[in-house]
What we know:
This protein has about 130 residues and is an alpha+beta fold. The chain has one domain. Helix content is about 25%, strand content about 45%. It has two helices and three strands. The chain has helices at about 85-100, 100-120, and strands at about 5-20, 25-50, 55-70.
Amino acid sequence: MAITYVWKTNKAKTKNITLGEGDNAVEYTDVVDAVDWELKGIDSESRLIGQGESAVDEPYSCTFNGTEGLDTNGISNGFIDFNSLSTDQLQAWVEASLGQDRIQEIKDAIEEDIANQKNFSPAIKSVGD
């Protein structure tokens, strides 16, 4: 079972932050403080969905998603203007915030779900015979 993982991080929640007071105040606008993320695992094996001519070959997959809050305390050490952000930067922040252990837990859960999909065999029973 070879699983490819695809991140989607294109929605960010922002706020304005003011550091300092009076003449020394610095205003940061549209500071990203949370990112909506999705991690999808797509298996190399597929299954046939549907019947007849409308049947399609679809890979086994599983998606986890969430919202990750970001630490904005060090904003003055490398603020990136919102209009300059990329989805790659958002993904890097989410991965750093989640940590490798949590990411591995999510990937393990995705792998388990896909394995369960492959092993699913519903019981077919007749009623009234």
